[in-house]
Design a protein that fits this description.
This protein is of the alpha/beta class. The chain contains nine helices and 15 strands. It binds flavin-adenine dinucleotide.
């Protein structure tokens, strides 16, 4: 069987690596970083089907996961919406999940090279799962931290501020992940202080105080900028999966599911290539087409809704719509399946 090389050991790369190894395909996976590591991520997986996790052979990892059935949205300190999710969201830290997937991949005989940053290659047998491309002119800043001992968490919480939003999601070991996306500007302070300053600047002072009164873990603080959403440019002829292919805005909590679904989509064509039954060019073409068809609707929906969360006028509109009970939450939620 022909070998597959994967660049990028995030969720798309690792889950694909596991699934390919289960099909006896030889796989070498290059990851620029090392495990375990914290990542800027809301750490709730919204919309992923059990079938996808089973097809990838990773369902067992989620058997004891924290599940959230509801979401609560706040504007300032006022709750403006409470809704039930189509499928319970899975709360899991990336620190834990990526490490488990990496262990599973190696346990199945996959060759994992950490600290190995690859150059983008349009080469036969190479899958590019190295995450989103940095966007120089991006106006967004993503921040994340874990807190313990947060007593009054209402399942999944989403708090809207003046120039962004922040989500609270319960993950394993009683911890709560706090992750926000805000307009990029100088908030002052370093590490977790930057996050507290950012929340205060965005009118979320009470939330900031509430989180600081719990037990924030400064070692889990991470930040990221240069974010660009939607279909990623320059992928012609490249077998790109996960964020490297398209990145959905974080409020949906669907990016991790898309990474798994992309791996699931690519699995069978890659097995055919490895067995010598299909040419590489045909496999790349087929996978790109299937990914576009699978994700088109949800990317469009997210692109329409996202600006409402980020502008004053948009939030005022959203607030009015939710108060009058007209928010089409169920159709929106369904679009992410
Ligand atoms: C602020 C924010 C909040 C989010 N919240 C959520 C959420 O709540 N729920 C959700 O489902 N999704 C969320 N997402 C999106 C989610 O994190 C991504 O969609 C998901 O991580 C995509 O997985 P991936 O494997 O494609 O990419 P990644 O997880 O980014 O993995 C890419 C990997 O490639 C490695 N790499 C990079 N360059 C190279 C290279 N040249 N060579 C080798 N390795 C390389 C990186 O180190 C990394 O490990 C959020 C994203 C942001 C920015």
């Amino acid at each position: 069987m022909k070998e597959i090389t994967i660049a990028g050991g995030g969720l798309a790369g690792l889950s694909l690596g596991v699934a390919l190894r289960r099909a006896d395909v030889p796989v070498v996976l290059h990851e620029a970083g090392r495990y375990p590591r914290h990542r800027v991520c809301g750490e709730f997986i919204n919309g992923v089907g059990k079938e996808t996790l089973s097809n990838l052979g990773i369902a067992e990892l989620f058997s004891n996961a924290v599940l959230s059935k509801k979401t609560h949205w706040f504007m300032g300190s006022r709750q403006m919406f409470e809704g039930s999710l189509e499928r319970p969201a899975i709360g899991v830290s990336r620190e834990w999940l990526d490490l488990q997937l990496a262990g599973m991949f190696e346990g199945l005989g996959g060759s994992l090279l950490t600290g190995s940053r690859q150059k983008e290659m349009r080469k036969e047998g190479v899958v590019w799962a190295a995450g989103r491309r940095g966007k120089r002119k991006s106006k967004w800043l993503g921040l994340k931290i874990h807190v313990a001992n947060l007593q009054d968490l209402q399942s999944l919480e989403m708090h809207m501020g003046r120039g962004g939003y922040v989500g609270l999601a319960p993950v394993e070991d009683g911890r709560v992940n706090v992750c926000g996306l805000f307009r990029l500007q100088h908030y002052g302070g370093r590490g977790s202080d930057m996050l507290w300053n950012c929340l205060a600047s965005n009118g979320l002072n009470r939330l900031s105080a509430r989180l600081q009164e719990a037990s924030p873990d400064p070692c889990s603080f991470t930040a990221v900028s240069a974010l660009g959403f939607g279909g990623q440019p320059g992928n012609e002829g490249l077998m790109a999966l996960g964020d490297a292919e398209s990145m959905i805005p974080p409020f949906t909590g669907n990016g991790m599911s898309m990474a798994f679904e992309a791996a699931e989509t690519a699995l069978e064509p890659l097995c055919k290539y490895s067995e010598g039954k299909e040419s590489w060019e045909k496999v790349v073409q087929d996978v790109r087409r299937s990914l576009r068809a699978r994700f088109r609707r949800r990317l469009l929906m997210a692109r329409i809704v996202h600006p409402f969360l980020l502008t004053h006028a948009g939030r005022a509109f959203l607030s009015g719509v939710t108060r009058s009970g007209l928010l089409p939450f169920k159709p929106l939620s369904r679009a992410l399946r």
